[in-house]
């Protein structure tokens, strides 16, 4: 007997250009059979899919659980929001320093606390990327891989002169690093050497071990922020865009790529590329250093919003929301196959924290980041299909590609033996983004008022239904994923 058969769905799979009308059988949390007419008497439970599109569960590979609120609260509310958008696996960035747990120290002490706080509270499966903020963390990478299954790491290139929201001259206090240590290009090089050493130490896991980079150049940002503020001609998101200009991204991509070449750190992920210049630099570096396996990421917000449409200072994020010309350049990259996956970069920041209470119109005082995981699949589906993006490419961008890169080898597709993570979508239902309708604790959205076509109706996590009719059902059942999964 199967545990569940989902009948009458149109199955969308990565690497399968055709959409097939199939039934889907699930047993023990995995896809057990796909076929055109599975006998319902063979199943303990049968669900009629009503002809909806069946996508693999979304792998949102760039989230920030616990960045602005206690992790024990944030992972619960924001994973509920993720589930309603079809996300069944979230990978959250985590680091020592201000924000998150607001403490420094070793990951041997820090990360078990993160896992304990997360346990039993997430509605979706989850994993963590970690950022080596100090020399001690680099030394810990092999143990993090072997003991905790953390196979992905991150560098924030702009922290050399900037805090999370703008300029910061107090690096050691913000990052909580030891006296005498610097978070700079030399540190980035040593992180790359540490990741390379881990790949060599664990050859059976090497394909799933990677390093991600937030590519903005601190010195360019410092100078341009001063220029924009002193000129006083721009305000809001246009000012923030100009203060962190696109060529800052391009230069950082170039520096990071040469360091990857120098250190033979071959698995490099270029995060949330936001501009034509960033994409151009990334593609040039792929030609210059063909031995480096570059992957390129964009966010759904950078694909959908521009400086004029992102709900004012609520749209402040790093790197900034850009011009409409940059938005179109990102879509060209997606359609040309030069973007590997799309994410949310979800960082729930409530309204009372997001804007300065005394000066809410001041973009320099606003916090950076916002939520949006619940609109990831619908956003890519809605805007992508308008532009000719095939459905199987939507599945690749939101599920298969990030799962494969980050060692989630049981996730990302609808095939026998894979985790039965399934999203049923009505491609014809149109809706308007309203923050008030979201499960997120955030009371606004930079996408407020955007119209999308393609609503998530039902979601299954390892064969158990977690969303019915767009609403979360059942208790939190997400599991921590020690990678690589098998």
What would you say this structure looks like, in words?
This protein is α/β, with parallel strands linked by helices and about 475 residues long. The protein has a single domain (about 55-415, about 430-450), classed as TIM Barrel. Helix content is about 35%, strand content about 20%. It has 14 helices and 17 strands. The chain has helices spanning about 70-85, 105-120, 135-150, 170-175, 185-200, 220-230, 235-245, 245-265, 275-290, 300-305, 325-335, 350-355, 375-385, 390-405, and strands at about 5-15, 15-25, 30-35, 45-50, 55, 60-65, 85-95, 125-130, 150-155, 210-215, 265-270, 295-300, 340-345, 420-430, 450-460, 465-470, 470. The strands form three sheets. Strands 1, 2, 3, 4, 5, 14, 15, 16 and 17 form a nine-stranded mixed sheet that branches. The protein has a five-stranded parallel sheet with strand order 9-10-11-12-13. The longest helix has 18 residues, at about 245-265. The radius of gyration is 21 Å and the shape is globular. The mean pLDDT is about 95.
Number of domains: 1
Cα Rg: 21 Å
Count of alpha/pi helices: 14
Distance between the termini: 24 Å
Shape: globular
What helical percentage do the residues reach? 25-40%
Task: Identify low-pLDDT runs.
Answer: none
Query: Using DSSP, what is the number of strands?
Result: 17
For the record, the CATH class is Alpha Beta
Classify the secondary structure makeup into a structural class.
alpha/beta
Beta-sheet strand percentage?
Answer: 15-25%
Under the CATH scheme, the architecture is: Alpha-Beta Barrel
Mean pLDDT: 96
């Amino acid at each position: 007997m199967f545990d569940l058969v989902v009948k009458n769905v149109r199955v969308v799979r990565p690497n399968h250009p055709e959409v097939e009308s199939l039934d889907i059988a699930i047993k023990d949390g995995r896809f057990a059979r796909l076929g055109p007419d599975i006998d319902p008497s063979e199943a303990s439970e049968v669900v009629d899919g009503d002809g909806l599109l069946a996508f693999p569960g979304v792998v949102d590979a760039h989230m920030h659980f616990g960045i602005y609120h206690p992790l024990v609260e944030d992972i619960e509310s924001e994973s509920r929001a993720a589930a309603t958008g079809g996300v069944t696996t979230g990978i959250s960035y985590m680091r020592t320093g201000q924000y998150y747990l607001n403490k420094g120290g070793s990951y041997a002490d820090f990360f078990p606390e993160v896992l304990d706080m997360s346990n039993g509270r997430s509605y979706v499966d989850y994993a963590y990327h970690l950022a080596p903020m100090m020399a001690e963390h680099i030394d810990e990478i092999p143990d993090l891989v072997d003991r905790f299954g953390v196979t992905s790491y991150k560098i924030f290139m702009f922290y050399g002169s900037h805090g999370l929201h703008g300029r910061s001259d107090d690096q050691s206090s913000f990052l909580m690093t030891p006296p005498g240590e610097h978070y700079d290009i030399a540190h980035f090089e040593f992180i790359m050497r540490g990741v390379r050493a881990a790949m060599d130490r664990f050859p059976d896991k090497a394909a799933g071990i990677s390093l991600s980079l937030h590519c903005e150049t601190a010195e360019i940002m410092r100078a341009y922020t001063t220029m924009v503020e002193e000129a006083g001609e721009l305000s809001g998101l246009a000012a923030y865009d100009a203060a962190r200009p696109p060529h800052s991204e391009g230069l950082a991509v170039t520096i990071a790529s040469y360091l990857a070449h120098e250190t033979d750190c071959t698995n490099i992920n270029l995060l949330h590329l936001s501009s034509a210049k960033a994409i151009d630099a990334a593609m040039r570096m792929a030609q210059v250093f063909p031995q480096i396996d570059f992957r390129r990421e964009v966010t759904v917000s950078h694909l959908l919003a521009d400086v004029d449409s992102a709900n004012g200072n609520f749209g402040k994020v790093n790197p900034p929301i850009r011009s409409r010309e940059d938005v179109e350049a990102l879509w060209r990259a997606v359609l040309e196959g030069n973007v590997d996956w799309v994410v949310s970069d979800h960082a729930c920041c409530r309204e009372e924290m997001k804007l300065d209470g005394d000066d809410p119109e001041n973009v320099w005082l606003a916090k950076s980041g916002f939520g949006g995981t619940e609109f990831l699949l619908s956003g890519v589906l809605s805007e992508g299909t308008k532009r000719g993006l095939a459905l199987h490419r939507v599945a690749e961008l939101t599920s298969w590609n990030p799962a494969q890169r980050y060692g989630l080898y049981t996730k990302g597709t609808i095939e026998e033996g894979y985790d039965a993570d399934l999203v049923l979508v009505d491609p014809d239902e149109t809706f308007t983004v309203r923050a008030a309708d979201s499960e997120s604790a955030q009371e606004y959205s930079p996408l407020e008022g955007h119209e999308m076509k393609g609503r998530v109706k039902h979601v299954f996590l390892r064969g158990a239904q977690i969303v019915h009719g767009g609403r979360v059902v059942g208790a939190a059942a997400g599991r921590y994923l020690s990678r690589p999964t098998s």
